[in-house]
Amino acid sequence: LVDLCGNDTAILFQHWLDKSVMELVQGGFLKAEDAGVVWRDMSPAHRVVLCTEQSRIDMVISQSDVVRFLAEHPSCFEPGVLDKSLEELNFLAAAPEVIPEVVAVAQSVTAIAAFALMEAKGVSGLAVLGAEGALVGSVSASDLRGMGQGEFGLLMSVEDFMLVNKEEVACHAVLPSDTFDCLLQTFKEKRVHRLYVVNKEQSPVAVITLTDILRFVSHPGGETGDCDDSSSSSSMVG
Question: pTM of the prediction?
Fold first, then answer.
């Protein structure tokens, strides 16, 4: 199901099928002001719904779809870009509004306290830290799916909550020295919406979301290559 009334969904019509990948990213997901569309909310969209002229839904493209496409099509980038580290690309030196602040909780706190912090900070995910401050996992708003009244899972510790409610308790992270290609491939393989950047002590120092990837590749004068070809756009949405 897709919430067509939500601010995180952009509704576009079929003539956008003729646009390039970068035009779709800038005008659809990032809601560029010069895209020729009037938005009631300028926050980035997590998905784009393409409708027929009769307003019937033809297809839905998510941020994950775009990042997976980029990971599978190295020709989208200028030569050498994928082999550069996040440090070399200056990825982690982006403005605070591009690389969100890492919001974290200790694994010993209760799950309900963690989700309360998530609400207070206005984020959809938290890093979970072990006793030494190392990343041991994460929780997100989607972990609440399926929980109903009368369930007491939120009263257990975050550590126990992850063990009970997640199919896999894993630390999906990258290092500043990892390449941009490694970042894209990790997003593709792990099917996650955010990756934490950790230091040598495995403590999180930054968090990268799918939106951050789209902002980076669509930056004016950026590092994209043949993806500006409209034929590449057709391959992605077809």
Answer: 0.79
